[in-house]
Amino acid sequence: MTLSEVRQKYLDFFRKNGHAIVPSSRLVPENDPTTLFTSSGMQPLIPYLLGQPHPQGTRIADSQKSFRAGDIEEVGDNRHTTFFEMLGNWSLGDYFKKEQISWFWQFLTEEIQLDPERIYVTCFIGDPSNNIPKDTESAEIWQSMFAEAGITNGIAEIGSEADGYVRGMKSGERIFFYDAKKNWWSRSGTPDKMPVGEPGGGDTEMFYMFPEIQHNTKYGEHCHPNCDCGRYIELGNSVFMEYMRTADGFVPLPKKNVDYGGGLERITAAANNRSDVFMIDVLQRIIVEIAAGSGKDYNHSEYQASFRVIADHMRAAIFMLGDGVLPSNTDQGYILRRLIRRAVRHMDKLQVQEGTVSRIIDSIIASYKDQYSELSANHSTILMGLLEEEKRFRKTLSEGMRELSKITAKGSVSADDAFVLFTTYGFPFELTEELAKEQGIAINREDFDKAMEKHRQESRAGAAQKFAGGLADHQEQTVKYHTTHHILLKALQMVLGEEVKQRGSNITSERLRIDFSAPRKMTDEEKKRAEDIVNDIISQNLPVTRTVMPREEAEKLGAQMEFGVKYPDMVSVYSVGPKDATQDTPKIPEAFSLEFCGGPHVENTSLIGEGGKKFKILKEEAVAQGVRRIKAVVQ
């Protein structure tokens, strides 16, 4: 069964059960500066999980492009990838546990024919310190599912992951209770970390057992569903968002939501009885191209990890480039650069011949052409982006080699030397170690790892500071900046021309940032005119209204849309003005601006300028060829 077939079966199944199918959002999230990439299916739906009405209704399903930078170092085993598609379905105050669990069971066992004997599940054990009860309801529903299939349905209370390694699994056990670190979800983590006003809930996770994988005791004495040995692979996670944190503790949400997410690649692997996710069709085609270009065997233990790194990183890089990300030293561009350079390094290890990169690109685009047409549309950009970054990296390697020669001439290479070579020249530790070894020089890997961990911690702290606040948390000032962002885009079109289009946004409670298409630098006079237009609109006290309408109608009315985003058939649009517009009679044709947007926004532009505040552009700069960036504040 191909990846496309499994994706289609999933979407068809949930469409049949009353869900509206929405297209995937971009890998770079819109209006969410708290993260560099969309890393889960629920991320684009946060406004609706927090109460915004979704234009498609209360039952939604999709397959979302996702990327997790934290998994880069994990790639190389049988199941981890940085890029993946997350199958998702949501109930926004509609159905709850019984329907969700029975539907997913039905999808796994009937639609894609998984062996029910190999399905194991986990549930939330409860949190007595916060008066959150054990999720016995989910466990009972699962018990009935297994019983109807004639399968043992014993329940085990595990607790923590560490407890699982000590206790293990007993015969007949099928449903396992874990603590909040494993079976609770909120954006902030476990219940103790949640701020006031944050929603969350326990979850139930589904695992598929691969009997051919033997437990490795390096992870712990005994195996259990959450073991890292790879014998049990998670297929999905149904979060039951039913609690809200208050100053006095946790209370039930007025509307209970379901948030399901499951890795399409892993489910496809299970459907084909493959414990190796790299053996599914889309990744196997890349493996075949690498083998042809290198003459190496994927199944050879010395080469397998490199095959997997190249396949994963190339696929992720192609999707990033297809969504408009370009290699750079900051933000998303830095992650893209790191992926390409790691892939090149592993290609060199396999001695991959010139021309293989082009064939890999063609293979990936062909695999996804029906679902993600943006890859075909940006084929030349993707090819040039990869080849130019490979060329740049080879120049960097050359410089690093010269620097390494100076270091080895001293007769030793310290961990600090290796760290500087990596951070300054992009020189991989493994290459430094290999070349030093040829001269009889050993490097302390432990000290290098400590230096790298310190560097990562400092980078994370910097990122947390850099992305403080954000539209996702709906702070009042952030919402004001969101509406200001809409006004500014229209002002830029008035000053520079209608061809100006948004190419990205980053909005916090402290400032707004907009990336937009423009062939040249703005003059001081143009920046002043844009500022004056924004401040004039703010001073006019114009109402901001939301309307749900067919996408085609919104397009005919000229509503602005995010670059590269695919919108559903019914969309939410926000209009600014005119003066006498109301939510019941928005008067869209007379509005100052009109944009596809999920919200939230202020009700009137006067709220932006409260206290005599004025809009001001702080900086206007280039970020890529043909793309400019403005940072601005209201103060």
CATH uppermost class of the largest domain: Alpha Beta
Number of domains: 3
Radius of gyration computed on alpha carbons = 26 Å
Mean pLDDT score: 90
The rough form would be described as globular
Q: Let me know the CATH homologous superfamily of the largest domain.
A: Bira Bifunctional Protein, Domain 2
CATH level 3 topology of the largest domain = BirA Bifunctional Protein, domain 2
Helix and strand composition category: alpha+beta
Q: Strand share of the residues?
A: 15-25%
List keywords for this structure.
4-stranded antiparallel beta sheet, alpha+beta, 635 residues, 17 strands, 3 domains, 10-stranded mixed beta sheet, single chain, globular
